[in-house]
């Protein structure tokens, strides 16, 4: 069941979620900043060979997350593609922000009010205002026991009273962590005064992120449960993790076992493509993934690369040690 709250139905306190600027920009200053930021972000996108829109969004996400996590005791954790992006520093750009509350909220209205308050505090005097103006509530239980209530919030960042960028925020009450969160430093997408002294962001442990991707790769879908996944990004994300991020074998083994049990899933004993359709479908999609290594566009190359690391985990030959992405070996 879904229920959509419009701006007029939102809690009255902090309805627009606007920040209070000590020294607001004049319209001329705002216009000049908008132009200079646009030029810098477009130049960064061109140098990376990606579209400008995800770079603009990543810039605004960094500003937004800097506000939310100014204080180390903020009760939220970053999930999803942005959690992976801030670890790797590139690729896997997303169009929304995924946040989980560490403890259950009393209501979605309270959660939204809390986010409005947190996002209204400029980080080192950044000149933006954030409006969180529409919320869709989902109360259907998911199949994996992670919780029954989620919400999607529509938001926009304003500069000088005009929209600079819009985005959405996915909220959840679920917390399925059996280890402390990781605190990962935010990385500036461009060199700019608004992105100085960025905080570290609490994110789900990388082993949880990797386990979720592995399980998603082998889940079956459709009415009869026989349709293989076509989420090609999951394999690409596994490649990115194996190539760049250390992780613990024991923790990954534990989380994989739990996730597979919750999803009623039997994992393979080695990495392989979910179906024959991937032979054509994966390379075609991989060619369009931002900053994804060309040498792993080929399905067999991507699978072989991941197998070097993960086959030992899947076949239970390895239950201890740390993956070293620099050496591409277990230590």
From TrEMBL:
Location of the region described as Disordered in the Swiss-Prot/TrEMBL record: 1-22
UniProt-listed Pfam families: AbiEii
Protein name from the UniProt record: Nucleotidyl transferase AbiEii/AbiGii toxin family protein
Biased composition (Basic and acidic residues): 1-10
Species assigned in the record: Kribbella pittospori
InterPro entries the UniProt entry points to: AbiEii (IPR014942)
Lineage: Bacteria, Bacillati, Actinomycetota, Actinomycetes, Propionibacteriales
């Amino acid at each position: 069941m879904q229920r959509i709250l419009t701006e007029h139905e939102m809690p009255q306190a902090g309805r627009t979620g606007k920040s209070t600027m000590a020294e607001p920009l004049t319209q001329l200053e705002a216009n000049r900043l908008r132009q200079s930021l646009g030029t810098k972000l477009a130049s960064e996108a061109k140098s990376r060979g990606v579209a400008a829109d995800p770079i603009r969004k990543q810039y605004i996400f960094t500003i937004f997350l800097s506000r939310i996590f100014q204080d180390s005791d903020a009760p939220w954790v970053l999930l999803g593609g942005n959690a992976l992006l801030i670890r790797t520093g590139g690729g896997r750009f997303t169009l929304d922000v995924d946040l989980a509350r560490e403890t259950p909220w009393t209501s979605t209205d309270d959660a939204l009010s809390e986010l409005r308050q947190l996002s209204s505090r400029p980080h080192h005097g950044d000149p933006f205002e954030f409006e969180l103006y529409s919320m869709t509530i989902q109360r259907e239980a998911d199949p994996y026991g992670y919780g029954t209530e989620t919400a999607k919030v529509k938001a926009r960042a304003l500069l000088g009273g005009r929209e600079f960028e819009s985005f959405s925020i996915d909220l959840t009450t679920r917390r399925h962590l059996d280890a402390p969160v990781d605190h990962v430093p935010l990385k500036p997408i461009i060199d700019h005064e608004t992105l100085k002294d960025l905080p570290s962001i609490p994110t789900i442990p990388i082993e949880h992120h990797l386990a979720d991707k592995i399980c998603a790769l082998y889940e079956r879908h459709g009415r009869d449960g026989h349709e293989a996944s076509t989420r090609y990004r999951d394999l690409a994300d596994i490649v990115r993790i194996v190539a760049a991020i250390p992780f613990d074998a024991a923790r990954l083994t534990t989380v994989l076992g739990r996730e597979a049990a919750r999803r009623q899933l039997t994992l393979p004993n080695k990495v392989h493509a979910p179906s024959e359709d991937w032979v054509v479908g994966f390379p075609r999609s991989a060619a369009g993934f931002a900053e994804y290594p060309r040498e792993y566009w080929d399905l067999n190359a991507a699978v072989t690369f991941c197998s070097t690391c993960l086959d030992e985990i899947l076949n239970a030959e390895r239950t201890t040690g740390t993956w070293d992405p620099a050496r591409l070996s277990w230590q």
